[in-house]
Design goal:
Layout: H1 5-16, H2 21-39, E1 49-51, E2 54-56, H3 58-66, H4 86-99, H5 104-110, H6 114-120, H7 135-147, H8 170-190
Antiparallel strand pairs: 1-2
Helix pairs in contact: 1-2, 1-4, 2-4, 2-5, 2-7, 7-8
Length: about 190
């Protein structure tokens, strides 16, 4: 079963309680961005649009705005927060730990980086835009932050997929592969 953006939004509400709609949108955006950077795959297939206040996932926006009984409800109809696997939950938790304490205005500003700018092109900042953000732009941008060793980014969780058995040589093999591919990955992230 594929996780949806709505499932992740429900997980955010479960972990943090009610948050402002714009903040919720940015938190699920950063969860997707860092999942792409750290895991190499999207957390969910739903796409973000380049709205004036930053990336917005339209389904989450609609359900969050019109699908709840009261504005402060944290139950999103159709959301299944339990559908996230342990590794994905660890990534979302790392994103929440880093970004959730920030004000929504700060999150909006942080989301206005290259992937959002690329999708908006030359549009004026206040004009509506339904152009989707490119997952490859998101992956490239956030992976480059990791490879550059930027400060002010979430701490990457120490996750190991459950299907890979741990052996004493596991860490040595992983370290050797990192060294082997580091320069290639750095070049790819900068493209």
């Amino acid at each position: 079963m594929m996780v949806t953006a709505l499932d992740v939004a429900g997980y955010v509400y479960r972990q943090r309680g009610w948050v402002d709609a714009w903040k919720l949108e940015k938190l699920i955006y950063f969860a997707q961005a860092w999942h792409l950077a750290w895991d190499g795959r999207p957390l969910f297939a739903d796409r973000f649009q380049a709205w004036p206040d930053g990336p917005v996932q339209p389904t989450v926006y609609q359900v969050n705005k019109y699908g709840r009984s009261h504005w402060f409800d944290t139950e999103l109809p159709g959301a299944d927060p339990d559908s996230l696997d342990p590794a994905s939950r660890a990534i979302v938790d790392a994103v929440l730990e880093h970004y959730a304490p920030l004000a929504k205005e700060t999150l909006v500003e942080l989301s206005h980086e290259m992937p959002w700018q690329q999708a908006r092109g030359d549009l004026p900042s206040c004009e509506r835009c339904d152009t989707e953000l490119s997952e490859s732009d998101m992956k490239r941008w956030y992976t480059a932050k990791v490879l550059r060793g930027e400060r002010g980014i979430p701490a990457q969780p120490n996750i190991r997929p459950a299907e890979i058995p741990y052996t004493p040589d596991f860490d040595r093999v992983v370290d050797a592969e990192i060294v082997r591919w580091e320069e290639t990955l750095r070049l790819l992230a900068e493209r």
